[in-house]
Amino acid sequence: MSGLALDVEAVEAWAKDNIPGFTGPVTATKFSGGQSNPTYRLDTPNGSYVLRRKPPGVLLKSAHAVDREYRVQSALQDTDVPVAKMHALCEDDDVIGSAFYIMDLVHGRTFDQPRLPEQTPDERAAIIDEMNRVLAAIHSVDLDAVGLADYGPPGHYCQRQTDRWTKQYHATQTEDLPDMEALIEWLQANMPDDDGQRTLVHGDYRLDNLLYAPDSANVLAVLDWELSTTGHPYADLAAVVMQWSMPATTEGRGLGGVERAALGLWSDQKFIDTYCERRGISGIGDFNFYLAFCFFRMAAILQGVKKRALDGNASDPERGLKLGEYVPEFARSGLEAAKR
User: Phi, psi at residue 180, to the nearest 5°?
Assistant: First the structure.
């Protein structure tokens, strides 16, 4: 059995003991695409589920934390943030070789390309507006009320994240990138003062991590909470703007060079202004720092994806290598954002 193959019999036996009403036989199908925690669809006579597990092999400390994904989505069940229903978490590596959790399968639509080529201008505007609403909802969660006050360490979020991802980047580095080192140096030298804002942050908020209803612009579930923590909300907001600045290609998944207005797509400024209105914020200073920070963090993440692909334990090695080719571009774009 390969490292990414799923021991279906072991999953079935464990689920029968831990999930009320779970019955076999079970068939499992691995979802394609994702580069972090391998994800599988489980079909049973009584319904379908999703299993998300840690990848096999030697992993970086604190990476692929499926237990945190399970915790945050469980905490958000009764909030304005749409998430799938969580069923059970297995932290015993002996069951299938790594920790995993099982949640409901949510039937909906995902959009890989922010150009939304199959939608009308009005539909595109509604999809982006809902994306904006959900982001504001994530940042408006009462951490104490949902039991997430201790979900992330206290202190300066951007400083903490810059230090963490610098270490992660250097631990997975496969070549010398002067732009990346210069970007790290700039971030450290231009770190803004901690303004006291501390909210739930998703950590990888973008269109393709949202599951929309089949027949409306309503988001049914926010996916991929692996990088979530408590921290500064502007990092999530800047992540959206960062993604849109990328090339409008299959791999770039951005809006670079796209005439947005004619297509019903929002400008960066409209997205920022509408977000601020929803959160009662008058404006955002130092936005270029948060944008540069997001480029840096994505470069570090993709470097890790590339290293796992080279080591043979990536969820999708071929795509992982392709994504790894973007590391220099993200580093270069981060420096450009820093100079704005």
Answer: -65, -40
Helices (H), ranges, the chain:
8-18, 66-75, 121-139, 157-172, 178-189, 234-244, 260-263, 268-279, 287-311, 317-324, 327-338
- CA dihedral angle for residue 89, residue 91, residue 92, residue 97, rounded to 10 degrees: 90
Indicate whether 81 and 133 sit together in one domain. Answer: no
Residue range of the domain that includes 80: 8-104
Tokens of 53: 């597990």
Q: Is residue 181 part of a domain?
A: yes
Find the farthest-apart pair of alpha carbons in the chain and give their distance in angstroms, rounded.
Answer: 58
Does residue 299 sit in the same domain as residue 326? yes
Residue with token string 């450290």: 188
Structure confidence at residue 2 (pLDDT) = 42
Q: Before 121, cis peptide (omega within 30)?
A: no
User: Please, what is the average pLDDT of the chain?
Assistant: 92
What the block records as the tokens of 246 is: 């990328």
Residue 29 lies in a domain: yes
- Which residues have a Cβ under 8 Å from the Cβ of 186 and sit 6 or more positions away? 292, 335, 338
Q: What is the pLDDT of residue 81?
A: 98
User: Could you give the CA distance from residue 187 to residue 296 in angstroms, rounded to a whole number?
Assistant: 9
Clarify whether residues 130 and 271 are in a common domain: yes
Report, as an integer, the average pLDDT of 218-231.
95
CATH of residue 294's domain is 3.90.1200.10
Separation between Cα atoms, residue 289 and residue 192, nearest integer Å: 8
The Cα–Cα gap between 331 and 335 comes to: 7
Query: Looking at the structure, do residues 198 and 280 belong to the same domain, yes or no?
Result: yes
Do 54 and 157 belong to one domain?
no
CA distance 205 to 236: 6
Question: The domain that contains 39 carries what CATH number?
Answer: 3.30.200.20
Q: Is the four-CA dihedral 247, 302, 235, 72 of positive or negative sign?
A: positive
Q: In the predicted model, what is the mean pLDDT of residues 143-156? A: 94
The identity of residue 133, as a single letter, is R
In a shared domain, residues 140 and 252: yes
Q: Give the 3-state secondary structure of residue 169.
A: helix
